[in-house]
DNA sequence: CATGAATGAGGATTCATTCAT
DNA sequence: GATGAATGAATCCTCATTCAT
């Protein structure tokens, strides 16, 4: 219940450590990392992990949501400095690049798209919203097709990121996204 | 060791039943179906399953490889009745439609792309080869970009199919593939 | 599912061993004996225990039900060789004596009376039925009050047996039951 | 160490609140209520609970002992206003009625009779003493059998109260106690 | 070859108790 | 004296795999 009063200093520190350790584990692609290991890596006992996150699943949700939150701040900034279509293009590439960092978003996206839970529903809505906004701006500027839903693009990107595996993946993914973006543009 | 002599009739029957049951389970999206359940659904005992497939993983490999084999027969036929770009387009849609059948190829593709194993390496090569051939034909006819590798397109398709979850997924995926194909064509 | 075909010899042996070990543990009063220990004492692995009893609770039910079954065979025999009131008296004493053996029925009765579950409901009905029959026979012979329900007497006996603890308990319990029986008789 | 100096006002208040919360939990039949919950219900933190009661068991002992103390005040008063046998009868019924309140004495009695600990030994002695006194008075007035020990009667009552579960339990218990009392009287 | 009973490592979660703030 | 965060031992159950029948 982190709502009532601010956490004690040490508690906050532990919570951060746990999130960091969990992020490292889950975003590294080890989708079924052991909670015990995460706790150990965070330097706390298992009980402490469970005090902060009621459930293994709750911990995963916390990690992935945070990741999504940070990502969804980008579009607003991009739109201020670029044309809508370039903003869209950049955001798509941002997703790819982000996914490239230690499987980064890759696993997260897949889990988020695949798992039912209020938290993930929110995350999906958030990301689809970010993409929808970019698409809408591009469409009203006459630069981008106007018949694509945010969720559709999210599914495409999510999928492409989800399969990240090989070493040259990042370049490959950028190429795919380029092609996709070409198909999206009005010429 | 299924290499030495041809299987006895009942043994062959059991093997087929096991593959069918496993296909149903794994392609239905239940990526961690229990081997025991698969055996039961095939109407045989667990020991029999292990006589035919040394390992859970081996069973999965068998299922997915078979699926890929069947799929990779398509391009040759398509090229005989259509222009290269249409053949490519059809093959892409075929993958999507196939993936739509009870999560069909979706899970398979993801597993194949993601997991290291000689068998899957072969499957990847096979599919990438099929796509490469279609791309090459299209390119030499001047209809399709010539800077795309088969593996890259495989990754794109695999990704797009991977996240199949929602009900309207199939339409969504076809739309994405359309856009992608547009980006692929020379106009 | 012990209903389909008769168990293989070794399986039956293991099942017996498990029941025996569980009986020893639970009827000895260790109401929360560890399943691992029971398995070890039975000389089988934990998985074997769970093959035979789907759940800790299922094991307890099996043990206690068996105990009750055996006990409820007594009334019929007693009624053939004695007057109804003597049969009742003997059955009550039998319960006490049975409870005295390593906490025997004591814990079982309490668990059965206290826990909700189809199996225990049946056990309760069975025991109450046995007592009701004895009471009815005694009443129609004019030897015993006719306003006592079988379940009421079951509750009394169950309770008295449940508290068995001290060394001299058996004699004490027999005295209590004697007094109770005196109050039950018509004089 | 609550022996040294009188507790500070707030400390005493906390102690009372804890006892009340624990009484509510334990006497309500929730024999394995969590200490944390009890603390919360008492409106204090877990650390405070442990300052007042060294151990979970110590808390239980405190609750049950207090309950017994209060109950054992009754006999003296009853003997002043009634004949010895009626006093005994009333005390027995008092126990039953007390047990009927939210499983009240039922669980307490069973715990007290069943668990070894100096505190409970004292409680047992106290209750047995109360019953012994009533029996003795009745016996010397020639109204009640003189061969029954206080502890025996305690066991009987404890048992009868122990299995309180059903809704109609109180009436049932009163009937049983009636019968028992009949067996106790000299006619 | 088939059967299905046995194995046992593995892992999430709970909760009484301690101790830093 | 009070708080509540941290501890960590304890325990039930699952399921891939082995092997006696």
Topology:
Four copies of one chain form a homotetramer.
Chain A: H1 9-27, H2 35-42, H3 46-52, H4 56-71, H5 74-81, H6 84-100, H7 104-114, H8 118-140, H9 150-162, H10 169-184
Chain A binds a DNA duplex (21 and 21 nucleotides) through helix 1 and helix 3.
**Total of helices of chain A:** 10
Strand content of chain A is under 5%
The largest interface is: A-B, 31 and 30 residues
What is the oligomer described by this structure?
Answer: homotetramer
Strand count, sense and barrel status of the largest sheet of chain A are: none
Low-confidence stretches of chain A: none
Q: Considering DSSP H and I runs of 4 or more, what fraction of the residues of chain A is helical?
A: over 70%
Q: Would you kindly provide a written description of the structure presented here, covering whatever features stand out?
A:
4 copies of one chain form a homotetramer. Chain A has 10 helices and no strands. In chain A, 74% of the residues lie in helices and 0% in strands. Chain A is elongated, with a radius of gyration of 18 Å. Chain A has helices spanning 9-27, 35-42, 46-52, 56-71, 74-81, 84-100, 104-114, 118-140, 150-162, 169-184. Chain A is mostly helical and 187 residues long. In chain A, helix 6 crosses helix 7 (104-114) and helix 6 (84-100) runs parallel beside helix 9 (150-162). The first copy, chain A, folds into 2 domains: 1-54, Arc Repressor Mutant, subunit A (Orthogonal Bundle), CATH 1.10.10; 60-184, Tetracycline Repressor, domain 2 (Orthogonal Bundle). Chain A starts with 8 loop residues before the first helix and ends with a helix. Chains in contact: A-B, C-D. Chain A binds chain B through residues 110, 113-114, 145, 148-149, 151-153, 155-156, 158-163, 165, 169, 172-173, 175-176, 178-184, 187, and chain B through 110, 113-114, 145, 148-149, 151-152, 155-156, 158-163, 165, 169, 172-173, 175-176, 178-184, 187. The structure holds a DNA duplex (21 and 21 nucleotides).
